[in-house]
Amino acid sequence: MSQQGYVAAPPYSQAQPGMGGYQGGFGGGPAQPLYGHYGGPPQAFAAPPAGMMKSPVSSAAGMPPPPASNQYNPNVQQNGAHPQRYPAPQAASVYGQPLQSPYNSMASMAPPPAQQLTNQMSSMNLGNYAPGPMQSPPPPTSSVQQPFQTSPPQAMGQPQMSPGPQSPHMSPQMSPQQSPMSGPPMGGPPMGGPPMGGPPMGGPPMGGPPMGGPPMGGTPMGGPQMTGPPMAGMGRPFPGPPGPGGFQQPGPGAAGPPGYPQQAGQFGGNMAGHQPGMPGAFPGAPGGMAGPPQKKLDPDSIPSITQVIEDDQVKRGGQVYSTNIRGQIPPLVTTDFTVQDQGNASPRFMRCTTYSLPCTADLAKQCQVPLASIIKPLANLPENETPLYVVNHGETGPIRCNRCKAYMCPYMQFIDGGRRYQCGFCNCVNEVPVFYFQHLDHMGRRVDFYERPELSLGSYEFVATLDYCKNNKPPNPPAYIFMIDVSYNNIKSGLVKLICDELKNLLEHLPSEEGVEASAIKVGFVTYNKVLHFYNVKSALAQPQMMVVSDTAEMFVPLLDGFLVNYQDSRAVISNLLDQIPDMFADTNESETVFVPVIQAGVEAFKAAECSGKLFIFQSSMPTAEAPGKLKNRDDKKLVNTDKEKTLFQPQKGVYEQLSKECVAQGCCVDLFLFPNQYMDIATMADVPSHTGGSVYKYNNFQVETDGEHFLRDLRKDVQKSIGFDAIMRVRTSTGFRATEFFGAIHMNNTTDIEMAAVDCDKALTVEFKHDDTLSEETGAHMQCALLYTTINGQRRLRIHNLSLNCSSQLSELYKSCETDSLINFFSKSACRAILNQPLKTVREILVNQTAHMLACYRKNCASPSAASQLILPDAMKVFPVYINSLMKTAPLVGSTELSTDDRAHQRLLIMGMGVEETQLLLYPRLTPLHNMDVSIKTHPAPVRCSEERLTDSGMFLLENGHSMFLWLGQAIPPDLVQNIFNLPSLAHLQGNMCALPELDNPLSNKVRAIINDLIEKRPNSMKLHIVRQKDKPEMVFRQFLVEDKGLHGGASYMDFLCYVHREIRQLLT
Ligand SMILES: [Zn+2]
């Protein structure tokens, strides 16, 4: 890898014909059999038919904002803000948001501590602030004054002070920055506190393509200076640290021959064989290192995610984001904003890795930036945003292009006085149906433009006609079947009683469509161990009746009438049943269970009732009873870090594979709640959920007292969340590109139709696009996602999301329009799929290679010339390396024998269904200080960087990543704080297993509990609160979430990783 040429290793994201999707990189063979991919040559659309218009279809970019009061809904709230107007849409199309002076956004920030300005940062700040070109030398340390050429290779990270033309620098120890185009350097933001500042320049910061505004220049970094053997911390997640003599020896004293390092020598031999938990790991102090002591690089000086999040919140928080501009980059997922749909789908439904596609396949290949869209088709909208309109065209159904079948949308161009329209996807000219005819106004727009959601909005729904229903019959409302493992473990732990008690309450709150009082969902109940028990809960019965099926080889449902019922009708019988179940099995000795027959029973029940629905399965052990799908323990830690490690993630085939297909065909979604005390083969057991839009929850060593509430919160959320069933989705694109890869809890029978037994509001699919022709800068690129599904009330609907992107022949446009959070979602999913087929080491190598490649390509093509020692990052991707490094340290990818195989498999599957918000939070947890917050302020205190350095002995910090939550207590925490939070005199009195805070009536306690409850409520998964004291053993678990630090199970610190990537980039550029 170290010797590869600039465009050597093709990234796995660029499929080549016949290479199975992950060319070169992730697996040569076909990806996963269950996931379709385009293996064949690109199939372009047929030649345009005669009579096709030559003029380009108008894009949404030119669409003016609709009248201030939205005609569809006078209640659209705009939070008091004006919808944004864009006087010159074309020019503004890259930066949809109003240009804002960086000073504004920085104004409120405290000036950096003087200390931070002095050393590494000095040059940059001086450069940015000085009225003239920066001349001041950096502090006189020997390292910084050495010109690069004579520096030893090890010094690559040392500050380089040569004035470079880079301008908007957010980077640490940067050379003085001066825009070549703007006279005196425009001030950058004060760099101390917010070290990475915002994009400072108002003017075109660099000499490349003219830039409309903010940050283009990239983020040059003077090369993080390394203090210690930087690679020692790099652990194993990526290819491997250079050995001693290279990177590791710090300081000028270790100088080798002048000039660039011999790359092969640096990296070659060391890559393969480094040891887990490298000896010596990361020295705690510079004193532990060889070589003369060296100034330590201020961690504040490398790009910070918390800063990026904060900057975006300052800049775009609280605003209305109007979707009327093509290729507009939305605020970050972490920013609070309100969306107003004006012709493109809300970013809550669709986000993209870049909002400016490269015009040609060659450009795409050159930069290796994946082109993908992350789609959460049923995403929840906040209350102040308008729910989607439902359009009903009666028996004729939605209007679609005759050729490509795209649905009527804002990208259809009406012509010929309104009698025909040209499709924005395939360019075919279609007749307008008579009933749909409307005159055009002087701008060529239909006069009913604002009255029809499908003409003016990015997202809306159509009522589907019978043509869109199975067997041309309207669907029945879906059903929920609760299937409870009543074997010994679950009875003994009290779980069965807990579930039964909760269901009585939960069934009162089954979801229903907005505005509909009673839920239409039918419910049914099964208990099982080695055999299955079905219950007749017909309302006419005084007592529920049980029917036992002990032949699990050929599963059938012994009763039809009375099994799936309306809860309201059968409330009394069901309540009776739920009271009885725990007692019925109280004396059981049965410890073996079946599993596949349980799911089969659910599918059979849905078949018989001609409905779709969801199975809620509560199981505590691996199915070892004699029955189809019987499993045995195949866990083998010896496989970790070998080429066979992938088998740990691969599900057992055969009956499970077949079962997934049957479930999808019937619209049977499977949710699994697992309560394991030991290995369960989650890779296999979760296979059906992961192909049916289901969720998998896991509670290790479940105890009612400490885990009960956590589980019940998950169960409530899961039962009540909005969901669609029996879904099929298709992503259409305008000519020149198309969807080729699909990642999610989905099933694909062919290369285009994404099948989901169900899709809920939290599930996201990631779709990758490839070119098959040249894209036009003028018309841009359109995509339309159409989801056909059955609502919770049993109505068949089509949900349409449209999005238009820019296209450019300039790579700088692409980099400028990238969204790091979406990129990282794509990489997370593609890597998690790749580990099914490839050694983890290879997957990690590809991640690092591709990261370096993407950044090198930016450097080569988009940044102005500068010293090779500078690390220059595109502004929109400046925190990308933190995420990639964190990704490689996640349980599935890290390759550690200390992690349980089931935990790793579970997290892998979770990631596959995640949206952009979830992967962002997972890979960069929020670490929030709570000891010094202002309890009178409503908002949450600002998070700090996820690193041990941010913890203070006297502090209290909350860390959460959407799946785990910790309250960390420093050992020197003041007693009054302990008193206020725990009602205890000191930390020593704290019980080890506490998982909730006592309800104390003081402002601090109220505030801390409010923050915790808010997060638990807000995240898709509930979280269990772990309370950890500094230096206690459980603190180790907490520390693995400090993703900027060296990984506990292997993996580099952020700083080391950045140095490593920088090195890779330099190799690519030589
Ligand atoms: Zn078409």
From TrEMBL:
<dbReference type="GO" id="GO:0060536">
    <property type="term" value="P:cartilage morphogenesis"/>
</dbReference>
<dbReference type="GO" id="GO:0000149">
    <property type="term" value="F:SNARE binding"/>
</dbReference>
<feature type="domain" description="Zinc finger Sec23/Sec24-type">
    <location>
        <begin position="398"/>
        <end position="436"/>
    </location>
</feature>
<dbReference type="GO" id="GO:0070971">
    <property type="term" value="C:endoplasmic reticulum exit site"/>
</dbReference>
<dbReference type="GO" id="GO:0008270">
    <property type="term" value="F:zinc ion binding"/>
</dbReference>
<dbReference type="GO" id="GO:0005829">
    <property type="term" value="C:cytosol"/>
</dbReference>
<feature type="region of interest" description="Disordered">
    <location>
        <begin position="111"/>
        <end position="219"/>
    </location>
</feature>
<dbReference type="InterPro" id="IPR006900">
    <property type="entry name" value="Sec23/24_helical_dom"/>
</dbReference>
<protein>
    <submittedName>
        <fullName>SEC24 homolog D, COPII coat complex component</fullName>
    </submittedName>
</protein>
<feature type="domain" description="Gelsolin-like">
    <location>
        <begin position="940"/>
        <end position="1011"/>
    </location>
</feature>
<feature type="domain" description="Sec23/Sec24 trunk">
    <location>
        <begin position="475"/>
        <end position="719"/>
    </location>
</feature>
<feature type="compositionally biased region" description="Low complexity">
    <location>
        <begin position="142"/>
        <end position="181"/>
    </location>
</feature>
<feature type="compositionally biased region" description="Polar residues">
    <location>
        <begin position="115"/>
        <end position="126"/>
    </location>
</feature>
<keyword id="KW-0813">Transport</keyword>
<feature type="compositionally biased region" description="Pro residues">
    <location>
        <begin position="182"/>
        <end position="213"/>
    </location>
</feature>
<keyword id="KW-0653">Protein transport</keyword>
<dbReference type="InterPro" id="IPR041742">
    <property type="entry name" value="Sec24-like_trunk_dom"/>
</dbReference>
<dbReference type="GO" id="GO:0030127">
    <property type="term" value="C:COPII vesicle coat"/>
</dbReference>
<dbReference type="InterPro" id="IPR006895">
    <property type="entry name" value="Znf_Sec23_Sec24"/>
</dbReference>
<feature type="domain" description="Sec23/Sec24 helical">
    <location>
        <begin position="820"/>
        <end position="919"/>
    </location>
</feature>
<keyword id="KW-0968">Cytoplasmic vesicle</keyword>
<dbReference type="InterPro" id="IPR050550">
    <property type="entry name" value="SEC23_SEC24_subfamily"/>
</dbReference>
<dbReference type="Pfam" id="PF00626">
    <property type="entry name" value="Gelsolin"/>
</dbReference>
<dbReference type="Pfam" id="PF04810">
    <property type="entry name" value="zf-Sec23_Sec24"/>
</dbReference>
<dbReference type="InterPro" id="IPR012990">
    <property type="entry name" value="Beta-sandwich_Sec23_24"/>
</dbReference>
<comment type="similarity">
    <text>Belongs to the SEC23/SEC24 family. SEC24 subfamily.</text>
</comment>
<dbReference type="GO" id="GO:0048703">
    <property type="term" value="P:embryonic viscerocranium morphogenesis"/>
</dbReference>
<dbReference type="GO" id="GO:0090110">
    <property type="term" value="P:COPII-coated vesicle cargo loading"/>
</dbReference>
<dbReference type="InterPro" id="IPR036175">
    <property type="entry name" value="Sec23/24_helical_dom_sf"/>
</dbReference>
<feature type="domain" description="Sec23/Sec24 beta-sandwich">
    <location>
        <begin position="724"/>
        <end position="808"/>
    </location>
</feature>
<dbReference type="Pfam" id="PF04815">
    <property type="entry name" value="Sec23_helical"/>
</dbReference>
<dbReference type="Pfam" id="PF04811">
    <property type="entry name" value="Sec23_trunk"/>
</dbReference>
<dbReference type="GO" id="GO:0006886">
    <property type="term" value="P:intracellular protein transport"/>
</dbReference>
<dbReference type="GO" id="GO:0005789">
    <property type="term" value="C:endoplasmic reticulum membrane"/>
</dbReference>
<dbReference type="InterPro" id="IPR029006">
    <property type="entry name" value="ADF-H/Gelsolin-like_dom_sf"/>
</dbReference>
<dbReference type="InterPro" id="IPR036465">
    <property type="entry name" value="vWFA_dom_sf"/>
</dbReference>
<dbReference type="InterPro" id="IPR036180">
    <property type="entry name" value="Gelsolin-like_dom_sf"/>
</dbReference>
<feature type="compositionally biased region" description="Gly residues">
    <location>
        <begin position="245"/>
        <end position="256"/>
    </location>
</feature>
<dbReference type="Pfam" id="PF08033">
    <property type="entry name" value="Sec23_BS"/>
</dbReference>
<feature type="region of interest" description="Disordered">
    <location>
        <begin position="235"/>
        <end position="260"/>
    </location>
</feature>
<dbReference type="GO" id="GO:0070278">
    <property type="term" value="P:extracellular matrix constituent secretion"/>
</dbReference>
<dbReference type="InterPro" id="IPR006896">
    <property type="entry name" value="Sec23/24_trunk_dom"/>
</dbReference>
